[in-house]
Amino acid sequence: MTDRRLPHPLVALIPIIILILLLAVVIRLFGSDSLTGGSQIALIMGMAVCIFISMIFYRVPWKTFEKQMEKTMGGIFITLLILLSVGMLSGSWMISGVVPTLIYYGIQILSPRFFLVSACAICALVSLLSGSSWTTVATIGVALLGVGTALGISTAWTAGAIISGAYFGDKMSPLSDTTILASSTTGVDIFDHIRYMMHSTVPAMTISLIIFLIAGLGFGNNASMHVEEYTQGLASTFHISLWTLLVPVFTGILIARRVPSLIVLFLSSVVAGIIALILQPHILTQIAADSSLSTSAALTRGLAMTFFGSTAVQTGSEALNDLVSTGGMAGMLNTIWLIICAMCFGAAMVASGMIESIMRVVINWVRTRLSLVASTVFTGIFLNITTGDQFISIVLTSDVFKDLYDRKGYERRLLSRTTEDAATVTSVLVHWNTCGMTQATVLGVPTLTYLPYCFFNLLCPLMTLTIAAIGWRIKKPAQ
Questions:
Q1: Would residue 266 count as lying in a domain?
Q2: Cα–Cα distance between 222 and 206 in angstroms, integer?
């Protein structure tokens, strides 16, 4: 915390209030199209208000904002590359037949009654092994969404189950960036951190699985079954072959060898592209849509378009056409645009001292164990909203509260657990956060649509507050 003059906390809330009001208007006017520009304008306007107040009334120089923006944008460079790679992977996995094959066999194997709980468990396992919720959602998550659609399961419920499972693994895996970051920034051994997180994470996941199981039983009675329509459409359009599953096997090997996520996504896309050339040449020729080209040129054009652009494959079924369409790298550009705007807003809030001003009020409110944990939870969620990135939220939450936890006599692992229970899992619930925007784009389900069904993500903060209230496995302050 610095000693320079800070805006009053009520003044610091003005840009946030304006942002929320503008986003409400944008969502009202544009609905599901709000991410194509309206939300970005709201974030830029919120940033402008923050900078105007700071420069006019608190004499914060423009150079301060420039430096913070450069620092913030530099920190998300790899994230933007990963987003482009996710777009490339989603297109190649679909057109190569990987996702269609998984859907084809999945809808014949999985029961509608147990689909939701199975989807959550499968994503939890894959994410636990890979350490990445983004990779999990972009691969097996997309396939499961297709299976759920074919079984007549609501996409909102399916997305909630996928995200709940993916973020369980992301939170608990020793390979996860967020797990490593939360433990390292608080100075806690990573395995101590994971073991301590089990006290809140396992109950939250157990309750979530029970909810998905009960909900699935209801869908099993009322599901509109389209198995025959989908299997026939997929079989007549794609070359359904178990050979396509070499791609996810290859991807799993890379993950097991702890290859960085960006490299995994890129290599998996390349291998899927090779499979597409071998097994789906007719699809690539259809995508190329240029009869004047030679066969090799048409295949090359079709593969390139699969990687970078939107694809529309005709299957004979309108519902199936929507399911197998992809956006490629270009489909991620609105997401990248939104993330850049969100990062600029967050950088302005940090540079102006408005975040610091609000955090001081939160810290002064701490009196008891519960208020300490509640303040940490609030801060993690608040920073996810204002900075638009879970990594920034984790780092700032840890930095703000480390000394306070030490002074109060509580273990640092309580801070590391609470930080993950708040910052890591709620990031995907924020409309303009890097996680929320990415998963909404990859799954094709708006953030506000899947939010009520991400039970694990909603329960984790509540569970950590409950544990703090009863004091279970929390070291008492030294007397």
A1: yes
A2: 25
Assigned domain for 318 exists: yes
Instruction: For residue range 100-153, list pLDDT tens digits in order.
Output: 998 888 888 888 888 999 999 999 988 887 788 888 898 889 889 988 888 888
Which residue range forms the structural domain that includes residue 264?
A: 78-330
Q: Which two tokens stand for residue 54?
A: 């700071």
Provide the number of structural domains found in the chain. Answer: 1
Q: Is position 279 within any domain?
A: yes
pTM (2 d.p.):
0.82
